[in-house]
Design brief:
The structure holds two protein chains of two kinds.
Chain A: H1 3-33, H2 43-59, H3 88-95, E1 102-107, E2 113-116, H4 117-122, E3 125-133, E4 139-148, H5 149-156, E5 164-169, E6 172-173, E7 180-181, E8 185-188, H6 189-192, E9 198-203, E10 206-207, E11 217-219, E12 232-238
Parallel strand pairs in A: 1-12
Antiparallel strand pairs in A: 1-2, 3-4, 4-9, 5-8, 5-12, 6-7, 9-10, 9-11
Chain B: H1 8-14, H2 21-46, E1 50-51, E2 65-66, H3 79-103, H4 106-111, H5 120-131, H6 138-141, H7 146-168, H8 172-177, H9 180-183, H10 188-227
Antiparallel strand pairs in B: 1-2
Helix pairs in contact in B: 2-3, 7-10
The chains are: A alpha+beta, B mainly alpha.
Chain lengths: 255, 237
């Protein structure tokens, strides 16, 4: 091989490397600016998470709707994972039919509000018949009734710097069944304002059962089961990127 | 490459390689990703080793297949992200291979069977050659026979796309944009079942593929897929 070719190869390789590096840098800059980087982007597996999240956010940018089903499609069996909360306060609320239960919405909002179950039910209600699938592989179809999260967020007026909506349930035992801790989760603003994202208090025409997260759970159209936080006690709007999840699984998980 | 008479190495390199670079590179990346996908996929399946048809299915409903493995409750939370990490590698390597395969005419030259070979007696002949372990002439071994060509084409254009399709059909985000991915195959659980069926087909192919390579000379074939050239006296698959 001649010297000319070697030099040309060297220059081409150098330019390609420089172009790739600056291209990657620009891609990361714009991806972050347009909210395409998930909070758990770190590490080797974070590369896959980021690609999945960015691709799906670009694909679903127009509030694409999850498939809806007919009433006759509703499953007879609706399995659940996870134990009931063992929190004392929750037990007391459950005992008197959640009369004193309140859902507080705080953080980056203009007017923090706490809603009673009756107040939530007085807001415009809607129902969606959706497929609910667990990451383990099983699935069922159910009808969920509640208020759009977007409606509630409109009432409290979210600040523009909000990045995530954090959902805190009542305390639960962890996997070993001993230590009590609160496992909370969050969603991004695209999912928060999605028309199928409900604060659900009804299931298949009845009050939300204890197994399914009474009195109110999050119900998302475009996510797996584990993202639909049950037994809600508090909702917090945040711009913190290190404050997105405590518990099992990945934040977005490829849904 | 300039032909230099008298230089042994140059003469060998001047001949066309057994496998072109893009085939060799993407082949090994696909091997790596398939190993990662299988290892993580079997762990995901273990957490619910039952398969259903339609949209729904769970313990307490009728199943299509009950796999003879126990339920592993509380699987590692890293199975799914690992699966998607390797899925991205597979998709990117696969797209590179397919695009490169068209640009370099790899599919037309190496994999598309000749029209004259697409007759039952030709196909049957090739199968019977395989079954009788008949050694092929060095000339014939430098190219794929009709059965190999059809098999590789089916793996590239049917089995892998089937795995990808049914995998995407299980994603709620993807089906909110392309609901037909799920509805066309009968629903969410049907997609999960077909994902398993396509993977089984891929495993069957891999079993035969590795067995054939073993019989034809494992290291010479592996070397051909790494360097592009077959060592003297070696036979290719």
């Amino acid at each position: 091989m001649s010297r000319n070719l070697t030099r040309r190869t060297f220059i081409t390789a150098g330019l390609t490397t420089a172009a790739s590096a600056s291209g990657l840098g620009a891609a990361v800059y714009f991806a972050d600016r347009y909210g395409l980087i998930p909070p758990d982007h770190a590490g080797i597996l974070g590369i896959g998470e980021t690609l999945t999240y960015a691709t799906q956010r670009l694909l679903t940018s127009g509030h694409s709707l999850a498939r809806e089903f007919k009433r006759s499609d509703i499953s007879k069996i609706a399995p659940v994972n996870g134990p009931h909360p063992i929190d004392e306060k929750y037990r007391a609320f459950l005992a008197d039919g959640f009369k004193d239960w309140r859902l507080s919405i705080e953080g980056l909002v203009a007017r923090p509000v706490s809603f009673s179950l009756e107040e939530l039910k007085r807001l415009s209600a809607e129902s969606h018949i959706l497929l609910h699938a667990c990451e383990e592989g099983w699935s069922y179809i159910a009808e969920w009734t509640g208020v759009r999260l977007a409606t509630v967020l409109g009432l409290v007026e979210t600040r523009p710097e909000s990045r995530y909506v954090v959902f805190e349930p009542f305390a639960n035992p962890n996997q070993s069944g001993r230590v009590v801790r609160v496992l909370w989760d969050s969603i991004d603003m695209a999912d928060a304002f999605h028309p199928q994202t409900l604060l659900a208090y009804g299931m298949n025409g009845e009050d939300l059962p204890l197994d399914h997260g009474a009195p109110v759970r999050l119900r998302l159209g475009r996510h797996l089961g584990y993202k639909n936080t049950k037994y809600l006690s508090r909702i917090v709007l945040t711009d913190r990127r290190d404050y997105y999840r405590k518990g099992r699984g990945t934040w977005y998980g490829g849904i | 490459m300039i032909y230099q008479p008298g230089v042994e190495v140059a003469v060998e390199k001047a001949s066309a390689p057994r496998h072109i670079a893009i085939v060799r590179i993407t082949h090994w990346i696909v091997v790596l990703s398939v190993v990662g996908l299988f290892a993580s996929g079997i762990r995901i399946l273990e957490s619910h080793p039952r398969l259903y048809w339609g949209e729904t299915g769970s313990v307490g409903t009728e199943s299509l297949i009950d796999l003879p493995i126990p339920f592993i409750i509380g699987p590692s939370v890293w199975n799914r992200p690992t699966h998607f990490f390797f899925a991205w590698i597979l998709v990117l390597a696969g797209l590179t291979y397919v695009a490169g395969g068209f640009v370099t005419h790899h599919f037309r030259h190496d994999l598309l069977p000749a029209k004259t070979d697409l007759r039952w007696n030709r196909i049957a002949g090739a199968v019977s050659e395989h079954l009788r372990w008949k050694r092929r002439s060095a000339n014939a071994a430098s190219t794929y026979n009709v059965v190999q060509r059809l098999t590789y084409l089916a793996v590239v254009f049917a089995v892998f796309p089937g795995i990808l399709w049914t995998g995407l059909a299980m994603s709620f985000g993807v089906t909110s944009v392309f609901p037909i991915l799920a509805t066309a195959v009968g629903g969410h659980q049907s997609a999960r079942t077909l994902h398993f069926v396509f993977v089984t087909l891929l495993l069957l192919f891999l079993l035969v593929h590795v067995l054939m390579i073993w019989l034809a000379g494992f290291w010479s074939n592996v070397r051909a897929m790494i360097t592009g050239y077959i060592p003297q006296g070696g036979k290719a698959r």
